[in-house]
Design brief:
Helix content is about 80%, strand content about 0%. About 40% of the residues are buried.
Length: about 325
């Protein structure tokens, strides 16, 4: 009789325990989704709250893969906030745990994230080493879109190191994958980087061609920030060519996009971007002798000085 009671209890509690685990995993996934939504809107503090809630539920049910993803998400918020030490701590936790459970996709993602911290800190050689570490898993059935991200990052760091030939090679590899998978926002980013490399090589016509391709794809996915950066890049390139009127036209387009964005998302980063583009507008208006425009754009900053002083990190 006692054995029968034990069997009945075991049968009744096990499914309940499994339901609790599943419920907590589902809650973690749900909170991660909310966090991603807030992150994409630039509401990083709110995103962090939900990512930390997701981490708590993943820890509660020992969902190791979920924990790795949570650490990566939390690290991404700290990266966006410029808190690189905190970002590194979380990415390192993600990498260590991913290595313990031998998950190649999560290992590659965490290694790539660590590389991005080094890149932001200006430690380009360590950054490159971590991106190469992330890339070594590419033959282990990791998502192709992630491989494209690593290729793009390798292109970026090689550009910083002055290895423009390698930079072009990696970005072109990323572009092939993203075009095949119709990941158009990433395609725009790839074209933007190709334009930047060609601009550094003083191949301005090619750079303009690639920026227009970036602009085409940013418009396709309605990426307003990308559109603004494309306009700004065109302004800067035409400025290098001495075509001040054309440069000024694109600086105005950039400013108009940022003005619309700041009304929707009044974040500090966008405010700093607005201040930067006003610098270019005023300087170019001065060169063109547009006195009325000079006065107008200075008024946005409440400045009476002739030029705008922008801090290096702006």
């Amino acid at each position: 009789m006692l054995i029968l009671i034990i069997l009945l209890v075991s049968c009744s509690t096990a499914p309940q325990q499994q339901e609790d685990v599943t419920e907590k995993k589902n809650l973690a996934a749900e909170y991660t989704g909310y966090g991603n939504d807030y992150f994409n809107q630039g509401l990083y503090e709110r995103a962090l709250e939900f990512f930390e809630l997701a981490l708590s539920f993943n820890i509660a049910v020992d969902n190791e893969k979920g924990m790795v993803r949570s650490y990566n998400s939390i690290g991404s918020v700290y990266m966006a906030l410029g808190m690189y030490d905190a970002a590194m701590q979380n990415f390192q936790k993600a990498y260590n745990l991913a290595s313990i459970i031998s998950d190649p996709t999560l290992q590659s993602q965490a290694a790539n994230s660590i590389g991005e911290v080094y890149l932001s800190n200006g430690d380009f050689q360590k950054s490159k080493d971590m991106f190469l570490e992330a890339l070594k898993f590419k033959d282990k059935e990791i998502p192709e879109e992630h491989v494209a991200i690593v290729y793009h990052n390798l292109g970026s760091v090689n550009k910083r190191l002055g290895n423009r030939g390698d930079a072009l090679k990696y970005i072109e590899e990323a572009l092939k994958i993203n075009l095949k998978n119709k990941r158009y926002e990433e395609v725009a980013t790839n074209y933007y980087m190709l334009a930047s490399i060609h601009s550094e090589n003083e191949k301005y016509e090619k750079a303009i061609e690639y920026i227009h391709l970036a602009l085409e794809y940013d418009k396709k996915v309605e990426n307003s920030l990308g559109i603004a950066k494309d306009f700004l890049a065109l302004g800067l390139i035409y400025g290098k060519l001495g075509e001040k009127e054309e440069a000024y036209k694109y600086f105005q387009k950039t400013f108009n996009v940022y003005r619309a964005l700041i009304a929707l998302y009044p974040t500090l980063s966008i405010q700093l971007e607005v201040k930067s583009i006003l610098k270019y507008l005023i300087e170019t208006a001065e060169e063109l002798g547009y006195e009325k425009d000079i006065k107008k754009y200075r008024s946005y900053l409440g400045l009476k000085r002739k030029t705008i002083e922008v801090a290096p990190n702006e």
